[in-house]
């Protein structure tokens, strides 16, 4: 176990916010994590505790007075092979895209559309990351956790995780209570590409890739190219991917918007509801490419807030509020951040 005091969090959040944590603890095994929890309980330590992954969905509003926990466990184990399915247990501390690459290289399929998403495997299972028509929950069978109050190990089935759009029980009722240590995936040996999502077929055609002979590597590379064209690389421009969730609204609200914007994009949710891309609404409000102080709205994708250098969490939060207020007054729709404010 490695413990650091007064540790800069700059390298631990993709926004690149320079906040400090009073303590930063890295553990390398479930035993070490349980030991840490046991010691805290024995000492009656009730200072705040926050478990982080790659920090790709966090916004530190200021310094963190408690302890930040991070896993450095890195193993990938095949637990079973049954017919078309392969079952794989993956440590929470593995970088998500390294896992996707490993799966593609191993000819285990399903995750291709989730290529190049920043963050780690454990956080992906908490956040239910998604892109291009796939979500992590489609491939997660169950999740191993450690109770941060008692140290007990608990397994959550996919159903018990109560997955929703960028949501799970770990972001709601059980927020902060459990640390995900491993995620169990079920992938297939057969490659069944998902190409319906707007943009994929177009990108394949542009690269002269024939859909019939498409390989998993080609699909992965296509997704990486689409993402890189639209989303800034946190290594050069601090950001947390989509800052807001796409709101799900009553169909009548969308129909009303369509009277003024006949081309307003939307996704069908069910008979009564549609999802409206928040990025589109933010762009209509004139925010795309706008910079105020050290923060701005990314010029190629209005759903992304960027740190143009030296931003504080409060500056990001203020920009978030201004955007929310504008979207609300313009469209009558409240947009919620996808990013977790700490
Ligand atoms: N749009 C605009 N202007 C913008 C941005 C988007 O008009 O500035 C329009 C687009 O033209 C398109 C629609 O909005 O008609 C949707 O845009 P896009 O396909 O870029 O996807 P998104 O809805 O903005 C979601 C996810 C992304 C994911 C993409 C692709 C959320 C909150 N975001 O974005 O996820 O990569 O779809 O599947 O659901 C993330 O969560 O961090 C993330 C990047």
Task: Explain what this protein looks like in three dimensions.
The chain has 342 residues and is α+β, with helices and mostly antiparallel strands. The chain is built from eight helices and 20 strands. It has helices at residues 30-42, 96-105, 121-127, 200-206, 216-230, 251-260, 278-284, 313-331; strands spanning 2-8, 20-27, 49-52, 58-59, 64-71, 76-82, 85-91, 130-131, 134-135, 140-147, 153-157, 178-188, 238-239, 248-250, 267-268, 273-275, 291-292, 295-297, 305-307, 340-341. A five-stranded antiparallel β-sheet has the order 6-7-12-10-11. It has a four-stranded mixed β-sheet with strand order 1-2-5-3. Strands 13-19-18-17 form a four-stranded antiparallel β-sheet, with helices on one face. The two termini are 24 Å apart.
Keywords:
342 residues, alpha+beta, four-stranded mixed sheet, 8 helices, globular, binds uridine-diphosphate-2(N-acetylglucosaminyl) butyric acid
Overall pLDDT, averaged?
Answer: 96
- Which small compounds were modeled alongside the protein? uridine-diphosphate-2(N-acetylglucosaminyl) butyric acid
How many whole angstroms does the radius of gyration measure?
21 Å
Low-confidence stretches: none
Helix-strand sequence:
EEHEEEEEHHEEEEEHHEEHEEHEEEHE
Query: How many individual β-strands?
Result: 20
Oligomer: single chain
Structural class, from secondary structure content? alpha+beta
Largest sheet: 5 strands, antiparallel
The geometry reads as globular
Query: In whole angstroms, how far apart are the ends?
Result: 24 Å
Strand order of the largest sheet: 6-7-12-10-11
Beta fraction: 25-35%
Number of helices: 8
Helix content: 25-40%
């Amino acid at each position: 176990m490695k413990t650091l005091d007064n540790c800069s969090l700059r390298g631990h959040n993709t926004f690149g916010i320079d906040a400090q944590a009073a303590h930063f603890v890295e553990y390398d095994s479930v035993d070490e994590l349980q030991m840490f929890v046991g010691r805290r309980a024995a000492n009656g330590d009730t200072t705040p505790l926050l478990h982080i992954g790659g920090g790709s969905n966090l916004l530190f509003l200021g310094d963190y007075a408690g302890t930040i926990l991070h896993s450095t466990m890195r193993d990938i184990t095949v637990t079973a092979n049954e017919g078309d399915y392969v079952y794989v247990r993956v440590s929470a501390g593995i970088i998500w895209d390294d896992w996707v690459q490993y799966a593609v290289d191993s000819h285990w399929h399903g995750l291709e559309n989730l290529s190049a998403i920043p963050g780690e495997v454990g956080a992906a299972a908490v956040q239910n990351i998604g892109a291009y028509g796939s979500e992590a929950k489609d491939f997660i069978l169950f999740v191993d956790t450690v109770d941060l109050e008692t140290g007990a190990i608990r397994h959550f089935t996919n159903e018990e995780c109560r997955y929703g759009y960028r949501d799970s029980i770990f972001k709601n009722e059980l927020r902060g209570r459990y640390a995900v240590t491993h995620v169990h995936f079920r992938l297939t040996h057969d490659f069944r590409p998902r190409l319906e999502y707007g943009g994929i077929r177009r990108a394949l055609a542009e690269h002269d890739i024939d859909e019939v002979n498409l390989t998993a590597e080609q699909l992965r590379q296509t997704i990486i190219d689409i993402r890189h064209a639209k989303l800034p690389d946190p290594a050069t421009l601090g950001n947390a991917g989509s800052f807001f969730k796409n709101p799900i609204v009553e169909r009548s609200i969308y129909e009303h918007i369509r009277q003024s914007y006949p081309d307003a994009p939307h996704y069908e949710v069910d008979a009564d509801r549609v999802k409206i891309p928040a990025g589109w609404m933010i762009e209509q409000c004139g925010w795309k490419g706008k910079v105020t102080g050290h923060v701005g709205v990314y010029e190629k994708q209005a759903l992304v807030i960027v740190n143009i250098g030296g931003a504080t969490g409060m500056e990001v939060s203020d920009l978030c509020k201004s955007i929310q207020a504008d979207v609300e007054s313009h469209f009558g729709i409240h947009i919620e951040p996808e990013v977790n404010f700490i």
